[in-house]
Design goal:
By secondary structure, this protein is mostly helical. The protein has two domains: 100 residues, Glutaredoxin (3-Layer(aba) Sandwich); 159 residues, Glutathione S-transferase Yfyf (Class Pi), Chain A, domain 2, CATH 1.20.1050.10. It has ten helices and four strands, in the order αββαββαααααααα. Strand 1 and strand 2 form a beta hairpin. Helix 4 runs antiparallel to helix 6 and helix 7 packs across helix 10. It is globular. The relative contact order is 0.13. InterPro entries: Glutathione-S-Trfase_C-like (IPR010987), Glutathione-S-Trfase_C_sf (IPR036282), GST_Omega-like_C (IPR047047), GST_Omega/GSH (IPR016639). Keywords: Transferase. This is Putative glutathione S-transferase.
């Protein structure tokens, strides 16, 4: 589902490592019905590889009674032979792509999970997941004023921490893009377009953060990342989905005209923060 931030980091990692040559990508539509996500965008409304209409069918195949009772989620890796799901742990799938799938990486693939930095990356990943990726959802789905304000302050405090960190670092771990940057990007790229308005996370916009804004644009302007960034889809999903419209009272199903996303193309000059200004990635097997 192209609007899902958790799936987005998996899609980006797959593409950067060249795993798109060995792992096909099935994409559901952006609205779910009572049975969950549906492959509405494919011919005949069926995934062309697995031949299924509902994502739930992957989960059903692992159930003794053939009826999965919980909500099917994306992303999920499926075995194309059995049609069964083998992994839906979105937090760890990018790491598995970086490590277990290394024999299938393209030549010159970036080292997104360098051994010398894994402890720091793991710690930062948990911070990003809890305080940023899930943190903005804690704001948007708060069910009391107290819960909303607590989540609101906690989320923007985390953004301030990362804004400070990027004062003297081109990327979160320094000179090169790592797994941590890929995890932060999906929340940043959705922020001004949807979270600021729909989730009432409205203390500041991303464009109000000098370092985070330039950093996010630099990531966006990498072709393998830009190609899976869909601003209009984000707006349609978050603003028009039946389960999300009530969050901001969109009873007439109106999709906001703005913001102007052409600003994401503005030039970025953060190379001076790196010892290797011409390089954004460190290639595998060449040392970090």
């Amino acid at each position: 589902m192209p609007a899902c931030p958790h799936a987005h980091k998996v899609v980006i990692t797959r593409r950067l490592l060249g795993l798109d040559k060995v792992i096909s990508l099935g994409t559901t539509g952006i609205f779910r019905d009572p049975k969950g996500w549906v492959f509405t965008e494919d011919e005949g409304e069926k995934d062309p590889v697995l031949g299924i209409h509902y994502l739930k069918e992957i989960y059903d195949r692992d159930c003794p009674d053939g009826d999965y009772k919980e909500r099917p989620t994306v992303p999920v890796i499926a075995d194309t032979v059995t049609g069964k799901g083998v992994n839906n742990d979105h937090f760890w799938i990018p790491i598995y792509f970086d490590t277990a799938w290394k024999p299938f990486h393209k030549a010159g693939a970036p080292d997104l999970y360098p051994e010398a930095f894994r402890e720091e990356i793991n710690e930062l990943n948990h911070f990003i997941f809890e305080r940023i990726n899930n943190g903005v959802y804690d704001v948007g789905f708060a069910r009391s004023q107290e819960a909303y304000e607590k989540a609101y302050h906690r989320f923007f405090e985390a953004l301030d921490i990362l804004e400070k960190r990027l004062e003297d670092r081109r990327f979160l771990l320094g000179d090169y893009i790592t797994d941590s940057d890929i995890r932060l990007y999906p929340t940043l790229v959705r922020f001004d377009a949807v979270y600021f308005q729909v989730f009432h996370a409205n203390k500041k916009k991303l464009i109000d953060y000098k370092n985070l804004w330039a950093y996010a644009r630099e990531l966006y302007q990498i072709s393998e990342i830009k190609e899976s960034t869909y601003f209009d889809i984000y707006k349609r999903h978050y603003q028009l989905s039946p389960h999300l419209k009530p969050l901001w009272g969109n009873i007439y199903s109106i999709k906001a005209k703005g913001p102007d996303v052409s600003v994401w193309e503005e030039p970025v000059d953060r190379g001076h923060l790196s010892a290797y200004p011409e390089e954004k990635f460190k290639k595998e097997q060449s040392g970090y």
